[in-house]
Specification:
Elements lengths: L1 E7 L1 H16 L2 E5 L2 E5 L5 E10 L5 E10 L4 E2 L4 E2 L4 H11 L4 E13 H7 L6 H9 L8 E9 L9 E4 L2 E6 L2 E11 L8 E3 L15 E7 L14 E2 L5 E2 L4
Parallel strand pairs: 1-5, 1-14, 8-9
Antiparallel strand pairs: 2-3, 4-5, 4-8, 6-7, 9-12, 10-11, 11-12, 12-13, 15-16
The protein binds zinc ion.
The site of zinc ion has 5 residues, from strand 8.
C-alpha cells in the first residue's frame, strides 16, 4: 500500500494564488455580439511542472514546482477552456528546461461569497472537471490536477490554514478565502481501470479504489508559516480590490 503525496512549492503556491486572484478581481475584455464587455470573477487555467519521485517507503511524491498560466484560455465565470497552444508550452519546457516534468493541470473556481462555496462545496472538482481528467488518460504524464477556489469574506479574517480533508486545504489572505484541492489521476497497470483519487463521498460517480493505494495527501509547506510583511488589501465589491501598504 502506498500513499500519494502532492507537495506544492512556495513558488507554485504563489503563482497559483496570483493567477486565481488576477482572474477574480482584474476585469477581462471579452468580445460579444454587441462589441466588448468586461468580465470579472472568471476561471483561469494552467499547467503544472515538477517531479514525480518514489520515496524509500514506497510512497509516491509529486512535487509541484511551477505553474505556467494559459494566457490564451477562454475564461468564463463557471468554466475555462484551455487554449490550443499548450503543445508549444510543453515543447519549449521539455526542450529548454528538462529538469521539470509535466505533471498535470490547474484551474480556479471563483465565487463571489464564501457562504456559497461552503453551501455547495464549490471547492470540489465538478463532474465536468472529472470527465476532462478521464479524457487525459491517454497522456501517461498527466498525473495531478489541482483546483483553487477563491471567494471573499465580508470581514477580514486571520484564521490559520486548516485541512478540510487530507487533500483539501483552506486559508485566508485578508478577506480573500482560498481552498486548494488535489486529485490524482491513477492509471496503474495496463489492465487497470483509470481512477480519480481520493474518491470524494460527494461524487456521484465512484471509481474502484486501487488495492495498492492508501491515501492522497496535499502538502503546502508555505501555509505552515504564511509570512505577511505589509498590510494586504481587500476585495470590495465585484472586481474591486483596495490595495493595502504598497
Ligand atoms: Zn472546475
Amino acid at each position: 500500500m502506498a500513499n500519494y503525496i502532492i507537495q506544492i512549492s512556495d513558488d507554485a503556491l504563489m503563482e497559483m494564488s496570483i493567477a486565481a486572484l488576477e482572474a477574480y478581481v482584474v476585469p477581462q475584455r471579452q468580445a460579444n455580439k454587441s462589441g466588448e464587455r468586461l468580465k470579472k470573477e472568471v476561471e483561469t487555467y494552467g499547467l503544472l511542472w515538477g517531479h514525480g519521485v518514489t520515496l524509500p517507503d514506497g510512497d509516491i511524491l509529486y512535487s509541484v514546482q511551477k505553474l505556467t498560466v494559459d494566457a490564451m484560455a477562454y475564461r468564463r465565470t463557471d468554466s475555462v477552456l484551455p487554449s490550443e497552444g499548450l503543445k508549444v508550452i510543453k515543447d519549449m519546457i521539455t526542450s529548454y528546461w528538462p529538469q521539470y516534468s509535466f505533471l498535470g493541470d490547474f484551474h480556479s473556481h471563483p465565487y463571489e461569497h464564501y457562504n456559497d462555496v461552503e453551501r455547495i462545496r464549490g471547492y470540489e472538482f465538478s463532474e465536468v472537471d472529472r470527465k476532462s481528467m478521464i479524457d487525459e488518460q491517454n497522456d501517461p504524464d498527466f498525473r495531478v490536477s489541482l483546483v483553487m477556489t477563491i471567494s471573499s469574506l465580508e470581514r477580514i479574517s486571520n484564521i490559520q490554514p486548516e485541512n478540510i480533508s487530507d487533500s483539501i486545504i483552506c486559508w485566508t489572505f485578508n478577506n480573500y478565502r482560498f481552498w486548494l484541492n488535489a486529485c490524482i489521476v491513477y492509471k496503474g497497470d495496463e489492465d487497470d481501470e483509470i481512477a480519480l483519487l481520493p474518491n470524494s463521498s460527494h461524487w456521484k460517480n465512484k471509481y474502484d479504489y486501487p488495492d495498492d493505494v492508501d491515501n492522497v495527501y496535499l502538502h503546502c509547506p508555505y501555509l505552515s508559516h504564511p509570512w505577511q510583511t505589509t498590510k494586504f488589501g481587500k476585495k470590495a465589491g465585484i472586481g474591486k480590490h483596495i490595495a493595502g501598504d504598497i
